[in-house]
């Protein structure tokens, strides 16, 4: 593919954003919130209303924890479960791991580079603070009226289609271990899916985002077995890169045998034990395909790095589906699993 100038790319990207990707402005979403009518005061979704669950001074606590030398674990957990304030909302909006923040750079890099890598069609939305707080409330404690309102909001704002299957996630959490929630075939109830996913993300310390993502669902063309409640066990690669040095640090199998056996073997539930047996039967194929395509993946990652305008070190996840290779996720390397395998 012939390289293009920055101005040409910017024009093309803007056109594509208008045609496909969805990045609504804060003003657009704020205007949408103003249209909400909630005559019942116990309703959680109301214009200008943040449905707090406690009176905890999270801003002051964060300031204190930031001064501690060994703060990361406690701080991450606290941030994930706390009610939103304006300061916390701003902090989450700036989270570099959120797809809302890195996806435009990835899409541009793929467009500018002579690469075979793809990325799923993607729509991202940054929720206004009222709705970002709503999906932090426990699902079973919110009214059906609010759920219905949020369902309609999501369906309309993402311009969803009936009878279509989507892959959904928050800006930072894909809920792969509960894949039945991530694969949504009921678009008119997608708001409730998002609330359940975000509730679980908060429980595991991954609730540091105010963004939602809807992607095309990539149907498995290889007839792979499934684990984690319906997730196709496809060959995946995790590459670690330094974007400032344009350097590929290394690549490891996403479904690494040591990690997978350690994680699944000790699972107590019957479903996890079934997943363990499924993985063991599929391990040889995963390993063979990883080794067969490793050099190709390395070459494609090195190809896009000069055009990937991000700061710092990241992990990049690549999913194989037939002859296609998709960039499906990024995260800060410092917050990524599998670095020990390098």
Give the strand order, joined by hyphens, for the main sheet.
1-4-2-3
Total separate domains: 2
How far the N terminus sits from the C terminus, by CA atoms, comes to 32 Å
Helix percent reads 40-55%
> In sequence order, what are the helices and strands, one letter per element?
HHHHHHEHHEHEHEEEEEHHEE
Overall 3D form:
globular
Structural class call reads alpha+beta
Uncertain ranges: 1-19, 37-41
Proportion of residues in extended strands: 15-25%
The overall strand count is 10
Biased composition (Polar residues): 1-16
Region (Disordered): 1-20
Descriptive overview:
The protein is an alpha+beta fold. It folds into 2 domains: 183 residues, no CATH class; 116 residues, D-amino Acid Aminotransferase, Chain A, domain 1. The chain is built from 12 helices and 10 strands. A hairpin with a 2-residue loop joins β9 and β10. The N terminus is likely disordered.
Quick description:
Residues 1-16 have a biased composition (Polar residues). By secondary structure, the chain is an alpha+beta fold. It is built from twelve helices and ten strands.
């Amino acid at each position: 593919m012939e390289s293009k100038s920055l101005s040409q790319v910017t024009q093309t990207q803007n056109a594509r954003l208008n045609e496909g990707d969805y990045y609504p402005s804060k003003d657009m979403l704020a205007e949408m919130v103003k249209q909400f009518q909630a005559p019942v005061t116990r309703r959680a979704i109301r214009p200008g209303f943040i449905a707090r669950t406690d009176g905890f001074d999270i801003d002051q606590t964060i300031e204190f924890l930031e001064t501690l030398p060994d703060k990361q674990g406690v701080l991450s957990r606290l941030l994930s479960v706390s009610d939103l304030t304006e300061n916390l909302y701003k902090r989450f909006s700036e989270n570099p791991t959120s797809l809302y923040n890195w996806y435009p750079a990835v899409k541009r890099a793929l467009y500018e580079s002579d690469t075979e890598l793809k990325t799923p069609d993607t729509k991202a939305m940054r929720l206004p603070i009222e709705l970002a707080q709503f999906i932090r409330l426990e699902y079973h404690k919110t009214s059906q009226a609010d759920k219905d309102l949020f369902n309609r909001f999501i369906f309309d704002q993402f311009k969803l289609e009936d009878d279509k299957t989507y892959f959904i996630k928050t800006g930072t959490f894909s809920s792969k271990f509960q894949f039945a929630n991530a694969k949504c075939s009921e678009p008119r109830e997608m708001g409730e899916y998002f609330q359940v996913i975000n509730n679980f993300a908060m429980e595991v310390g991954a609730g540091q985002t105010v963004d939602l993502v809807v992607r095309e669902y990539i149907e498995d063309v290889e007839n792979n077995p499934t684990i984690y409640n319906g997730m196709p066990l496809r060959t995946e690669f995790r590459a670690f890169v330094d974007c400032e040095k344009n350097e590929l640090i290394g690549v490891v199998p996403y479904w690494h045998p040591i990690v997978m056996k350690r994680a699944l073997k000790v699972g107590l539930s019957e479903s996890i034990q079934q997943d363990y047996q499924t993985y063991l039967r599929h391990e040889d194929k995963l390993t063979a395909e990883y080794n067969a395509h490793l050099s190709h993946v390395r070459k494609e990652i090195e190809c896009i790095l000069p055009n990937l305008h991000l700061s710092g070190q990241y992990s990049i996840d690549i999913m194989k589906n037939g002859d296609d290779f998709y960039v499906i996720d990024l995260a800060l390397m410092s917050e990524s699993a599998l670095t020990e395998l390098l």
